[in-house]
Amino acid sequence: MQIHTDNALTSGSGYWCSEGKHNANDIISWTGHLKNVRSLNGLTIHWAYSPGEVSVLASYDGNEPFEEVVPYQVIESRAGKQNSAEKQK
Q: Please, what's the largest Cα pairwise distance for the chain?
């Protein structure tokens, strides 16, 4: 079951879920779009089941090319914890 990506940015009980049953080397992605241009200093993600690693890519207008703003980093907590990804200076 795949929950639509639009739900990930809604308030309340919105969430996104991949299809599951992934291989260890699979890369899973989610793309979100904001209605207005925003300047972000960080990103907070609440995981039900976190991956081993995560990176964040961004695009000014939602088109290619996306720029890696947070390089791959290991996720310490595997479930039920809050993890933050911040752009490294």
A: 38
pLDDT tens-digit series, residues 2-24 = 456 666 666 665 677 788 888 88
Is 17 within a domain? no
Residue 23 lies in a domain: no
65-to-15, 17, 40, 71, 87 alpha-carbon distances in Å? 26, 25, 18, 16, 18
Domain range enclosing 88: 50-89
Convert the pLDDT of each residue in 57-84 to its tens digit: 998 888 888 999 989 988 876 655 444 5
In this structure, is residue 76 part of a structural domain?
Answer: yes
* Interatomic CA distance for residues 54 and 8, integer angstroms: 17
* Residue 18 domain flag: no
Structure tokens given for 18: 């991949």
**pTM score, two decimals?**
0.64
